[in-house]
Amino acid sequence: MDSNLQNKTDNNIQDTNSKVMDRRNFGRKILAAGFLSSAVLLGQTKDARAWMDGTFSQRKDLPDAIRALKKTYSDIAPYPHKFNDALVKNRLRDIDFVVGKGLEKENVDHFVYTLGYLINKYLKKGVEMGGKDIALWGMFERTSCSYQLYEHITIQEFERSFPCPFKPMFEELKKDPGTLKIKWKDVCNKWCIPVWNGFAERAGVEIKVKTGETCKVKVL
Amino acid sequence: MKEISRRTFNKKSILLSCLAALAPASPAIAMFDKVQKDAFLAREDLSDALRSMYMTYDATYPYDHKFNETLVKDQLRNLQFSVENGINTDQIDHYIMTNEPILKRIKALVEKEGSEKALVELFDDEPCSYQLFEHIKVKTGERSFPCPYKSNLEHGKKWLKTFSIEWSDVCNKWCIPIWKRSADIIGIKIEVKTGETCSVRLQNPEEKEKS
Asked: Which chain B positions have a beta carbon within 8 Å of A60's beta carbon?
């Protein structure tokens, strides 16, 4: 291929990948992709309804959830508490523990392994049928492990971004009780990046990760 | 019926309003303060929390998702990892070490205010507890709550197929040692009962002496 044409094609691919879609188009695409992936990869209609199934108002355990939410968001000392507080603290403590033991790689492998069955069964097939964005959909907005961890997830085609939930909590815990030994970059390098790469590898896609106050995961 | 002019009406209504506002002045101010000082109402990040809650509670297949879903799975996963690697007691030691300054602060409060304060600090007012237990039943000297691990472990075994620890491991290798060791640092004696509903009860002084 002529090198100019190759460059142009590469740029076009890049443009397409990095293009911010309008909400309507994205909604359509994700709906189509979601439907396809759900229907095809999950196989059964019942499975396909697994997520956002419109039963919110029928739940009888909502008072417990609202009570926890009210208690959390009324608690502003020594810092404003959030719905992901206990989860973030638990994860930071665990990373601190395994890093101290030199077992961070094994810990990441274990985490990816425990979710591997679902990735192999659903996500991999979804990517094959519906395209690479399905991998991000499955890793982020589709799973409670992400939407209960990240305060909000910005969705762009082939890219997801979200504020790092670990940094503010890490800073609070460093101040008080001040017992964690890891650094913030350990969280990025010994947890987030290898975990996302592990999921992506299992799903059959390649990703580029940028960590910071806002993290970005882009499918290549 | 006597008609009154708009001007007179306004005058009367302003006067009445002033009187009404002045007469029960303190409750009105208290109400005003209540809104101003309510931390929950002042939060600007509630929409994120509500979004997460809606997404969680709108997911009911293959099982009802709950607000503590990911936290519980994380703790189960961490426990499985430590059990499989034979480092479970080290994990408990680490947990206690990271919490020790807080536990020592609770000890100081207990010395001033009594043993009940320990349960308040460990359960009622602790985000790691009220974000973990769906509801906490408060009785003097005792807290009880439904075990959050049992159902999640069953879901993990059934749907993820990668959880190998047993429910009894969670009780014996996580909950009981964590609570007992925390109580030791605080300087209280507790009795723990695990099951579908767990309870943590302060031992009364007689029991404490006996034990």
From this structure: none
